[in-house]
Amino acid sequence: MSTVSRRRFLKISGCGAGLAAAASAAPYLPGAQASAQDGELRRVPTFCDVCFWKCGAIATVKGGKLWKIEGNPEDPLSRGRLCPRGTGGVGAHLDPDRLRAPLIRREARGREEWVEVTWDQALDRIAEKLQAIEKSHGPEAVAMFSHGIGGAFLKHTIKAFGSPNIAAPSYAQCRGPRDVGFSLTFGEDVSSPERTDIKNARCLVLIGSHLGENMHNTQVQEFAEAIGNGASVIVVDPRFSVAASKAKHYLPIKPGTDLALLLAWMNVLVTEGLYDREYVEAYGYGFDAFESIVAQYTPEWAYARTTIPPQLIRETAREMARQRPATLVHPGRHVTWYGDDAQRSRAIALLNALLGSWGRRGGFYSQASMDVPGYPYPPYPKPDRPRADNPGKRYPFADGALSTGIREATLTGEPYPIKGWLVYATNLLQALPNQEETIRAIRQLDLMVVVDVVPSEIAGWADVVLPESVYLERHDELNVEWFREPFVALRQPVVDAPHEQKPNWWIARELAKRLGLERYFPWTDIDDYLRRRVESAGLDYDRLKRDGILRGARQPIYFDEGVPAEFPTPSGKIEFYSSQLAAAGFDAVPKYTPPDEPPPGYFRLLYGRSPVHSFSRTQTNPILAEMMDENEVWLNADIARRYGLASGDRVRLRNQDDVLSDPIRVKATQRIRGDCVYMVHGFGHTARGLRSTRGKGASDASLITRYTIDPLMGGNGMSVNFVKLELEA
Q: Whole-angstrom Cα distance, residue 454 to residue 689?
C-alpha cells in the first residue's frame, strides 16, 4: 500500500450523499457571521453528543435552519474533523420519530398507550410518586440509570433526594472489567477517552478492538496517523475487520481464547528475555512469582486452544519487543465477553508492563485536565443504606455501580426494595442482557420514568416519558476532560427545540422544586450556573461561549518529561503478582479457563459497532439511516454454501434458549471464522413509535439471554450465547 493511500484510508471528514455539504465547509472564525444570497449564516460552537467522545464541533445555521456540523479546529478531540456520526448530527434535530410532548401511560405497562400531558402534569405526577416511595420505602428505593454527560443534573437531583443508587450500563456491560484489570495492575485505569498514545506507537496491538468500525474520532485519526508513520499493526479477531485490513499480522483467533494467547505472548517475552528488564526491575512487584507461573503457557500450549500457530505467536511477540516501549496493546472497550474479563484485561495490562509502555511515548500517557471547581452546592444527605447493587461486596473489586445488580435488587427486594427507576438516555432493553429479566423487574416498580429523545423500547414500558431536547438545542454540563492536554468545552444551543422538548437541566431543576429541594438549585438559569463555574477557575466565560473551547498550557505526560512514576497499588509498584487478588481468593496472575463450546449446529454469537451508528440510539436519524438502515449477519462463505445461502438471503437466528430473531440478511464472507457469526448491535427495533426503523434488521440484544458474571467486579460476559440458522421459506 502506498504511503498516500495508507494515510488516507480512514478519511472521515465526510461520508454519504446526505453529508456532501460538509466537505465545502468554510474555515471557522470564532464568532463569525456571514451573509449569502440564500440566507444569513450563523456559526455556533458546541460539542457532539452522538457518542460519548464529546468532540468539539461548529454548527452552521443557514436562513434560520440547521444546515451542517463540522469539527472545531481548536478542539484536541476532533482536531477539526468529525466522524460520520458527528457530521450526521443534523439528523438528530430533524428526526421524524422524536418525542414531542410529555406522556403518561394510559394502559398496562408495555402496551405503549399514552396520553399527552403538560410538563406541569407530568412532573407533578413524578414528584407525587417519588414522595410516596420515599415515605414507604425510603429515598434509597429510587434508582437511576444514566448514559452520557447529559445525566449530570438529574443525578444531582437524585443525590439530593437521598439515593445512592445511580448506575451507568457502560460499567457492567462495557468498560468496567478493563478499568478494574488495569487498576489492579497499575493502580489507575485507562479512563475515557482512553489515555492511549496511538499516534506515537510504533507497534499497535488490537485484540477485538475494531478501530475504524468502533468510530471513536481521535483514536481513528491517530490510527491513520500511526499507519502513515509506518507503525506495524497486529490484529487479533475472529473476524477480518477494517483494522485487520491494515495489519502486518492478522491472527484469526478462536472466540473465547484470547487470554490463552496473552499468556503465551508473555511466556515468549519472559523466556526469551525480550521484556523491558530495566523497567520491570525499577517498577515491578512480584515478578519472580509471575515468571514461574507464565512459564507453563508456551505457544504450543496456546495453539491447541487458540488455533494460532506457535511460530506466529512467537513472531508477533518478538515484533512487540522490537518496538518497545512504543508498543501499545490497546485495552479495548466493550470488553464484557466471557465472564473472565477483568482477568483478561489484567493480562493486557501485564503485557503492556512487560513492554514498558505505561507512562512512555507510544504507550499510555499521563492525562492532564483543567482545574474547574464544581458549583458550591450544599452537602447531599447521607443515605441511611448503602447502594443496593453489590450487597456485602459480593464482587469485591467493583468500583462502579452495577446496573444488573440494581435490576436484581428490584426483582428480589434484597438487600432492600427498589421501587422507582429513572432512566436517562439509555435503552435498557438493548443495553442489558436478558430482556425478560429487565421486563420482570419493571413489573415490580411503582414508578418508571424515561427521559429520552425518541420513543425507544424502554420508553414503551414507562409510566411517564419526558421528551428531552437534543444536544443541538440545549446547554449541558461543562466538559472538563482528562486527556492528552487540558481543556474545557461548552455545549450550547444552536437552534430551538421544534416542539415541547426540554433540556435535562430544566427537567432536573423543576423536579427538584416539586420535591422540596430548591436549595440544591440556587442558580437562576443554566447560563448563570456555567458562568459561575468557569469564572471561579479564572477563565473567560464569554470567550468560551464565543470559541466553544478554552485550552490550557501543555503539561508533561510521559515519565521522561517529569511525570512521577507512581503506581497507587498496595505495593506502590506495578503488580505482576497481585497480593490483593490472592487475599480475596482469586488468581494473583491471570489463569486461562476455556469457555463453553457451542452445541452441535450452533455458532457463537458475536456483535459489534457500525461507524455510522451509536449503540441503538441513532437508527431513526434520517441521515445516518441513509448510510445503514439495517444490519446483516456475517456468515463464513463455506458455511453459507453448505446451507445453500448467498449474500442478501434472509435467515432467522434461534438461540440456545429458543428465542427467535426477526429476519436478517446474510453477508456470506471469508472474513469470519466458521465457528461464529457476527452482527452489528442496535437494530431490530420493536417500539411502535420508532416508525422509520421498526422491523429493520434483527436485534442481537434479544438473543443475549445468557450472561456470565465476572467474579471480580460483577461485569456481564455476553459473548456466551449461541445461535443456529433457520432459513426463510
A: 8
Q: Which residues contact 139 (CB under 8 A, 6 or more apart)?
A: 133, 161, 162, 163, 381, 383
- Whether residue 446 is contained in a domain is answered as yes
d(CA 544, CA 540): 6
**To 10 degrees, what angle do helices 435-443 and 403-412 make?**
50
Are the C-beta atoms of 475 and 30 separated by less than 8 Å? no
**Peptide linkage before 600 cis (omega within 30 of 0):** no
The strand pairing partners of 488, in sequence order, are 480, 550
Q: Give first-to-last CA distance, the chain, whole Å.
A: 44
Q: Is 685 exposed, middle or buried (0-12, 13-18, 19+ CB in 10 A)?
A: buried
State if pTM tops 0.70: yes
Q: How far apart are CA 407 and CA 390, in angstroms?
A: 11
Taking the CA atoms of 115, 117, 121 and 127 in sequence, report the sign of the dihedral they define.
positive
What single string gives the DSSP state of each residue in 359-388?
TSTTSBPPPB----PPP-PPPPPPPSS--S
What whole-number distance in Å separates Cα of residue 330 and Cα of residue 354? Answer: 14
pLDDT in tens, 500-555: 999 999 999 999 999 999 999 999 999 999 999 999 999 999 999 999 999 999 99
Which three cell numbers mark 564? 512521577
| pLDDT greater than 60 at residue 23 | no
Q: Looking at the structure, do residues 237 and 355 belong to the same domain, yes or no?
A: yes
Strand positions, DSSP E, 647-704: 650-655, 664-669, 676-680
Place of cell 470564532: 30
Phi, psi of 69, rounded to the nearest 5 degrees: -135, 135
CA separation for the pair 303, 513 (Å, rounded) = 63
Dmax of the chain from CA atoms?
75
Beta carbons of 619 and 682 less than 8 angstroms apart: yes
Q: 474 or 107: which carries more pLDDT confidence? A: 474
Positive or negative torsion for Cα 423, 427, 428, 431: negative
Same domain, 90 and 117: no
Q: Which residues contact 214 (CB under 8 A, 6 or more apart)?
A: 333, 334, 608, 609, 611
d(CA 210, CA 247): 12
- 239-259 pLDDT, tens digit per residue, is 999 999 999 999 999 999 999
Q: Give Cβ neighbours of residue 123 (< 8 Å, ≥ 6 apart).
A: 507, 510, 511, 514
> Which neighbouring-strand residues pair with 446?
none
- Are 543 and 574 found together in one domain? no
Asked if 195 and 132 sit in the same domain, the reply is no
DSSP H or E stretch at residue 347: helix 341-355
Q: Answer whether residue 227 is part of any domain.
A: yes
Tens digits of residue pLDDT in 63-72: 999 999 999 9
Strand-pair partners of 606: 678
Judge if 206 and 340 occupy the same domain.
Answer: yes
What are the angstrom distances between the C-alpha of 597 and each of 604, 638, 706?
8, 20, 14
Residue 126 has pLDDT above 50, yes or no: yes
SS3 annotation, 187-224: CCCCCCCCCECHHHCCEEEEECCCECCECCHHHHHHHH
CA distance linking residue 592 with residue 313, whole number of Å: 17
Residue 312 phi/psi, 5-degree rounding, is -70, -35
- The dihedrals phi and psi of 225, each to the nearest 5 degrees, come to -65, -45
User: Residue 11 CB: number of other CB atoms within 10 A?
Assistant: 11
Are 79 and 131 in a shared domain?
no
Are residues 70 and 215 both part of a single domain? no
Total of domains in the chain: 4
Residue identified by cell 436519524 is 621
**CATH code assigned at 47:** 2.20.25.90
Domain that holds residue 238: 188-367+567-583
Rg (CA), the chain: 25
